[in-house]
Specification:
Radius of gyration: 17 Å
Number of domains: 1
Order of helices and strands: EHEHHEEHHEHEHEHHEHHH
CATH superfamily: P-loop containing nucleotide triphosphate hydrolases
Mean pLDDT: 90
Strand content: 15-25%
Number of helices: 12
CATH topology: Rossmann fold
Distance between the termini: 11 Å
Low-confidence stretches: none
Largest sheet: 8 strands, mixed
Length: about 250
């Protein structure tokens, strides 16, 4: 699976982490890969300092399984949760932004090969990419490596119009099974749209993709961003239950 967005700030990373943790909590083998090379986030939440970064794998300095850090024991998960981190250093960010198209084509080959290696070596049930927003090459590579793409969006006009363009210009071209996750939606906006079901159907019609889930805006999540994995630490929270519903929908897609 790949989780993508038109712009930043949609809550994509929090969704990816909580979804992956939930799958592992249910006994599945899960691998999360931070493919947001221009603004890495997973290392902040997991506070990891791996021996190798995903950047190192793409540069041919290691195998992709060498980048994976097992977080299962730390969170006492029945399944496995491996995480591959991208390098957050300023030097690494400058380096990745200077890459040309030729390098990105090679990175696509490495991405597809890495996917096969992880599935074979770790026997994962779910491999989840957290991508850069927009039409960055690294995002397109992750989308090309995924069987299922979830487009995470808020419901303001900026996000809506940009998401429409991504749906037409990227997802249709790639031919990947895709869906929408609405996140950080104010309750007032849901009510004005005639309720969650009616509001969701309107977004489906506007974007042209099926709705995977709708998560209301919660100030607590913004305050606790990067500090809490709700599906592990607060399983009865509204956010955790929303993630659970999304997980069940994704399993059926």
């Amino acid at each position: 699976m790949a989780f993508h967005s038109y712009k930043g700030g949609t809550g994509k990373t929090s969704l990816v982490v909580n979804l992956g943790a939930l799958f592992a909590k249910q006994g599945a083998n899960v691998c999360l890969l931070d493919y947001d090379f221009r603004a890495p986030s997973l290392n902040v939440l997991f506070k990891a300092k791996p021996q190798y970064w995903l950047n190192d794998y793409l540069e041919g300095k290691c195998e992709i399984v060498d980048t994976l850090v097992d977080q299962s024991a730390r969170f006492k998960l029945p399944g496995k949760l491996w995480v591959g981190f991208s390098n957050p250093s300023l030097e690494a960010l400058k380096d990745i932004m200077g890459k040309d198209r030729k390098w990105e084509v090679k990175a696509l080959t490495k991405t597809l090969a890495g996917k096969k290696e992880i599935i074979k070596d770790k026997q994962v049930d779910y491999l989840i990419y957290d991508t850069s927003p927009g039409a960055q090459y690294s995002s397109i590579n992750a989308l090309a490596g995924a069987d299922l793409v979830s487009l995470v969006m808020k419901a303001d006009e900026f996000d809506l119009e940009g998401t429409k363009e991504l749906s037409k210009g990227v997802y249709e071209a790639l031919g990947r099974k895709s869906g929408i996750v609405l996140n950080k939606i104010p309750l007032e906006q849901i009510a004005a749209g005639g309720g969650a079901e009616s509001f969701g159907k309107q977004i489906e019609s506007d974007v042209g993709l099926p709705l995977v889930g709708l998560i209301p805006c919660m100030c607590e999540l913004m305050a606790m961003g990067g500090k809490t994995i709700y599906t592990i630490e607060k399983p009865d929270h509204t956010f955790s239950k929303s993630i659970g519903q999304i997980a069940e929908k994704l399993k059926k897609m």
